[in-house]
Every structure is written in C-alpha cells, then in structure tokens.
Specification:
The complex is a heterodimer of chains A (318) and B (277). Chain A has 318 residues and is α/β, with parallel strands linked by helices. Chain A has 14 helices and ten strands. Chain A has a five-stranded mixed beta sheet with strand order 2-1-3-10-4, sandwiched between helices. In chain A, helix 6 links the parallel strand 6 and strand 7. Chain A is globular. Chain B is mainly α and 277 residues long. Chain B contains twelve helices and no strands. Chain B is globular, with a radius of gyration of 26 Å. The chains are: A alpha/beta (318), B mainly alpha (277).
C-alpha cells in the first residue's frame, strides 16, 4: 500500500510539473556547439538578461553533431544553434523549423577566424591547384563543404575533381601535417593555432568571404510547433538574447569576455585571449540567406524552393 | 675430480645464466607492468624530443599533471561517475534481458522459433549506426545511452546463456523429472547452475562492451560523462586533459573487471574454469 501511495503521489507531482511547464514554459533548453560563435548566449546568461525576462536557460552542449535537428524534433531541447545549410536541408526534408535569431555572420573585417590552409611550399593557391587533391571538411553536405566547393569553382577549379574527406576539426592540423590531406577548411581555435605555425602551414583562402561576402553562417532555430505554442516565451528569449549580442559586440576586448568564453568552451584563458573575436549579427539578412540557398541548389544539395520569410521569426529581421 | 665437484662446477656455470634479469622478469607478473611503463616512457620522450609534433600529442607528464588537477578539483570524478552510472544501469538491464531470453529460448522451442530470427538480426546491428533514429524516440539524455548500452550487452549474455541451456545434459533433465521436480525447481536447481559458467563468461565480455558503448553514446550526444569530456577537450585544444580522462577510464575498466572476477569466483567457486585464471 505504501508504495502505491508513493507512486500515485509521484505521478501527481509529475503531472502537475508537466502542466506547469506547458502553461508557462519559462525554462528554455538550448543546445549549442562549444565555439566562440555562441558567446552571446552565455553573455546573456551571465549578465542576467534572460533572468530579467523571467526565463531560465538550460544550455546543453553538443560536439558530436548527431544530436542536432533530430534532438530538436524529439523535444530533447527547445532551441539550438545550427548552420544555415543544415537547417535548409532539414527544412526541405520536411522538418518544420523556425529561425528565431541571427547567429554567425562573416563580416568583412581584416582578421580571419576561419579559412583554407595547405602545407607550406605545396604550391596551392587556387581551386585549380586542388584538382586531383584531397580537401578536408568537417562533414559532407555541410556549410564548410559547400563553401569549399564554391571557392574551388570560383578560383578556377572543378570541385568534382577534388576529393573531399571528412575530418573532425581537432584532427585537421595533424592530417595536414601527416600528408593525409592537401588542404583543410579550418575554424577557430584550430585555424588560429595553425595559421601562426608558418613553418608548417600556409594560408590559402577565406572561402566564406571570397564566395559570398557577409554570408550568414549560423543561426538559432526551434521547431515551428514549439515557436507557435510558446510565442510569448520566444519573444522574451529573442529580446534577452539580442541584449547579449549587443553587449558582446560592444565589449570584444573586455577581459570579462575571456572568462565567459573560457567557461563554456573549456579553453584555457590564454588560448581564448589569442583568438581574434569577430562581431556577431543582431538581425538576419534574408537576402544573404537566399544567396546561400541558391548556392545549395547549384551544388545539388536541395531541389525545391524554400519560403525563407515564412520560416523566420519577424523579430529576427529588424 | 669427483662427480660431486664436477656437478658444482656445472652449477656454477649455469647459475649466472639463470639470474638473467629479463628471463626472471618474464616469469613473473611484473613483466606486464614493465611493458606499460616502457611504453609510457616512450610516449614522454617522443613528445619531449619532438619526434611527434602535434597539439594532440602532449607529454605524458603533462597528462599526469592534468589528471592530478582533474582529480583534485573533482571534475574527473564527476564525469567518470556519470559514465559509470549509465554503464552499470545499462549493463544490469542488458544482463537481465540476456539471461531471461537465453533461459526462455533455450528451454522452449516455440519461443525459440518465434524470437530467435529477430534477435539474430538485432545482434548484427552496430549500435552507433542506429543512434540517430533512436534520438527521435528516446531523446539525447540518459534513456538513449542506457538503451544502447543495453543493446550492446544483450547479445553476448543471451548467446552464452542460450548455449549453456542448450548444452545441458539430457540425463540431468530426465533425472529431475524422475524425482518429480517442478518446472521452477528444475530451472533453479538444474538449468541455472549448469548454465551459470557460460552465462558469466558472456557477462564478462559484455562488461567491457558496456563501458565502450557508454563512451560512444556520450561522444555522439550528451552533456556529461567521459565521452562528452573527450570531445569537448579536443575542441578546447586540451589534449592533456583528454588523455587524463582516458587513463582514468582505463583504470575504471580494469577495476570493474577485477571486481567482476572476484564476484565470479565467489559465485562459481565449485566450477573448475575459475581456477584457470
């Protein structure tokens, strides 16, 4: 009898908790990749912007990549940071997604935070030089892969004559050093650590900015269903997050930023201090996204059109 | 020269040969430890001397320092704890299902014919390959990881239990029937003890599988545990901390195996195979 009472009490509590969360949804679970691009999220948490709106954020990291959109659809988290190409692929496959705020944009600044590297003295300068060679990308059919191909085509090469190998970012410098690949499209912190090693590596190009200046690389998404059901919570979330972006952009050299970044990326503060941080966007430029979608079509990633405006939260556009 | 003195002379010649340190070492269990120490020294020297240049190849002494820091701060205990928790829950669940189905299918022809094709197909599925679709149903948290651990633990336990039951001496069962033993008593007194050595062999294989699957699951999705830590340390360019976690994991795996052997010896003290170790 005792266990029955305990059980029914537990069931009641669980039911009430479920009801309470459904009614107010004041906790938002956010999935992120531990890279500097998501810093505004942690600025907004650290500075209490979400708390001011009455929101509790539960950030969950994902490094493997398999979690992503399936985890979002399964309800394992409510919002996730993802790259534009993956989102559009999922959208075309019938997952109904909502883009809720801007994430990463490649602004036209002098400092590179990512790019194509080759071995020193290998003589690789253009896409033409890469024909018959092997290029490392983190995943096939991802944004890195797409822009590596587009850059090869733009600089006079034929991407179909280039072998693309999937290599995780942390292993790219070793694979290049070990001659298992001829070039790699790297991102920070691996890009920054490799590009200064001028005895071994050579900077080839910055595909993002050379193919599409001001390209929108990443953004935050939720499912359309979650977005519509929790309209008020999402409005609060977007407001608080934007404050995080504003603080971040205004304090790029602030030592406090090093503490925040080192906190969620687990990078040593000395390494964080060496990275040249880039400004991040407050709003999404749909024209830029459309250009990327066109690029996806040209490379055979998608075949149908995507209604970008219908899948983007109005607050993210202005 | 007497026979005795010639014998001693011969012994004197042989004695130094027998004291060769390497040969003596090879006769003791210490040789295993020495090999590990030599390999670790080679690691240290290869990084210190620059034979291998990579951010992913820190000196072993740096790894030890990282392990020490991690143990002091409680970080390593934390991540190991969550991995071991999932490992054990998944392991126990997988063992229970493996034994139950092994006994059932081993002793009942109809269940055998109905369920075994399905189980044989499941056995060949590599767990990492089915993680993405599983995420849709089980989310990315503990349920998913415990489930894939269970999936990995089930086959060896099932196959061995099933084999143990099937290999049972028919005379034993006939004797049980002669003595009028009930089905339950036959299972408890005859079948289980006879299948137990095979069963525990399967469980021992499954133990390391469980630990491996826990780490793989955490690498693919997750916010805690050794697998997740390995990934985030790679992305944070902290290879020393990553190897520190690997070493702790290896130590935990070794300990688990030792504990298992102790339990096995206690349960199977009557069985000769336990004395082979």
């Amino acid at each position: 009898m005792f266990s029955m009472t305990v059980l029914s009490r537990a069931a009641l509590v669980a039911a009430f908790t479920a009801l309470a969360t459904a009614a107010s949804a004041q906790t938002v679970r956010v999935n992120y990749i531990p890279i500097t691009d998501v810093t505004p999220l942690f600025v907004a948490i650290d500075k209490g912007y979400f708390k001011d709106e009455g929101l509790t954020i539960v950030p969950t990291p994902s490094t493997g990549g398999a979690a992503g959109v399936p985890g979002l659809m399964a309800g394992a988290f409510d919002v996730m940071y993802g790259n534009v190409v993956s989102t559009m692929l999922a959208q075309e496959q019938g997952f109904k997604l909502e883009v809720i705020s801007a994430g990463t944009k490649q602004f036209d600044t002098p400092a590179n935070t990512n790019g194509m590297l080759a071995r020193k003295g290998a003589g690789i300068k253009t896409g033409k030089d890469l024909e018959g060679k092997t290029v490392a990308v983190n995943t096939r059919n991802g944004i890195i892969w797409l822009f590596a191909r587009a850059w090869i085509a733009k600089s006079g090469g034929d991407a179909s004559k280039v072998t693309f190998k999937e290599v995780p970012f942390p292993q790219m410098p070793d694979a290049l050093r070990g001659k298992q690949i001829d070039a790699a499209f790297m991102v920070n912190p691996f890009f920054a650590a490799s590009v200064i090693d001028t005895d071994t590596f050579e900077f080839v190009a910055a595909p993002y900015r050379e193919v599409q200046p001001n390209v929108e690389v990443g953004h935050y998404i939720s499912t359309q269903e979650y977005f519509r059901k929790n309209r008020e919570t999402m409005a609060k979330y977007i407001r608080a997050f934007r404050k995080g972006v504003q603080w971040y952009n205004a304090n790029l050299k602030d030592p406090d930023l090093v503490r925040i970044i080192s906190g969620f990326t687990k990078m040593q503060p000395e390494l964080v201090a060496k990275l040249s941080l880039q400004e991040l966007p407050e709003v999404i430029n749909l024209g830029a996204v459309a250009t990327t979608v066109k690029l996806m079509k040209e490379n055979g990633l998608i075949s149908s059109d995507i209604d970008l405006e219908a899948m983007t939260a109005p607050e993210a556009l202005k | 020269m007497s026979i005795a003195s010639s014998l001693t002379a011969e012994l004197k010649v042989q004695a130094p040969v027998r004291r060769k340190p390497f040969r003596d070492l090879a006769r003791t269990r210490l040789s295993g430890a020495v090999l590990i120490v030599v390999l670790l020294l080679l690691w240290e020297v290869s990084a210190a001397r620059g034979w291998i240049v990579s951010d992913n190849w820190p000196r072993f002494s740096a790894v030890l320092a990282a392990a020490w820091r991690g143990l002091l701060s409680g970080e390593l205990a934390d991540i190991l704890g969550s991995t071991l928790y999932r490992t054990l829950v998944g392991y126990v669940a997988g063992c229970i299902f493996g034994v139950a189905f092994g006994l059932l299918l081993g002793s009942n022809r109809y269940f055998d014919w109905t369920l075994r094709p399905l189980i044989e197909i499941q056995r060949t599925l590599p767990s990492p390959a089915i993680i993405p679709p599983l995420i849709l149903f089980l989310g990315v948290d503990d349920t998913l990881k415990i489930f894939i651990i269970m999936l990995a633990v089930f086959p060896p336990v099932f196959v061995n239990t099933y084999g143990g039951v099937r290999g049972l001496d028919e005379t034993l069962l006939l004797t049980a029937r002669t003595f009028g033993l009930s089905r339950f008593d036959t299972l408890r007194k005859i079948v289980l003890p006879a299948a137990l050595p095979a069963m525990t062999a399967g469980m021992r294989i499954a133990l390391s599988l469980a630990l491996i699957m826990a780490v793989i699951g955490e690498m693919i999705s997750g916010a805690s545990g050794v697998g997740n830590y390995l990934m985030s340390m790679q992305y944070a360019m902290r290879a020393d901390s990553m190897y520190a976690a690997v070493i702790c994991l290896a130590a935990a795996g070794y300990l688990l195996n030792r504990i298992f052997l102790m339990l096995e010896r206690a349960v199977l003290h009557w069985h000769h195979s336990t004395r082979m170790e």
